[in-house]
Amino acid sequence: MSRRALSTSLAIAATLGLGLAACASPAATAPTVTPSASDTPVPLPSPIAAPDLSTPEVEAALADLESRYDARVGLSVLDTGSGATLDHRADERFGYASSLKAFAAAALLDATDDADLDRVVTWTQADVDAAGYSPFTSQHVADGLPLRQLVEAAVRQSDNTALNLVLAELGGPAGLDAALAAQGDDVTDVVHTEPDLNTLTPGSTADTTTPAAFTATLARITAGDWLAADDRATLLDWMSGNATGDTLIRAGAPDGWQVADKSGGAGGIRDDVAIVTPPAGDPVVISVLTTRNDPAAKYDDALVAEAARIALTAAAAAR
Known about the structure:
Layout: H1 56-69, E1 71-79, E2 85-88, E3 94-95, H2 100-111, H3 114-118, E4 120-121, H4 125-131, E5 145-146, H5 147-156, H6 160-170, H7 173-182, E6 208-209, H8 211-223, H9 229-240, H10 249-252, E7 258-266, E8 269-277, E9 284-292, H11 301-317
Antiparallel strand pairs: 1-2, 1-9, 3-6, 4-5, 7-8, 8-9
Helix pairs in contact: 1-11, 2-5, 2-6, 2-9, 5-6
């Protein structure tokens, strides 16, 4: 498991006493200086490690999940208040599927102003047919929509055509890849548009990420390091109304915890990433990325929900 916990470094400076010798002739004898306590080097304290939420019981529960569902479970959790973390296969690669849409939305909000977002964008029926799942944009081929509504549709309804149009605004997949790299994520490899981003090539990093990478970027959004306050509020509002996430992290969260998430799924891949806010205290950021080991197997929402329940229960107990 990877350790990406937040830590605080404390520096202590020791004041060294200096003996001063008076001017004297070469024959003069220099005065004897007796070392003081301040001359003794003071060791620097070790960095304060953030709490680790992983326990043998948590690891056993996650291993049991992987066995029962014949799947890999990637998990990266950060309590933004205490810095506590929980990682399981956090640095392994998984297909991100439509969970990428939350980050595409963040990149577009960051790159635009209100006038840009109010601009009407149009597309064709061929665009819809090529993209696949497009419940919102398929109804507006004739009239188009303001860019703002397209971004919202990509997040709330996971509309594929909407994502492709957002990516086009960013300069294609490479534009989003560069935006993520600018936020410190040089792991996520954005290569294709919908629906090709759902088909992975063995041995290739294309259209994959790690739980650790997604959680780190979500943490930047949570902290206000990426996105102005109004853009951040808009994105969290869209993610809070995500129509495809009720059976995922939201289903595994403790009662009263509010979940702003973005799901993704294709074939044996099922993912969900979220900012989870308890009734009191700072948010918990969580990425759950899963894939079935059998290429012919279909994903199961319960796998993500159970992984989230294990992780968020541990986070709640540590508060």
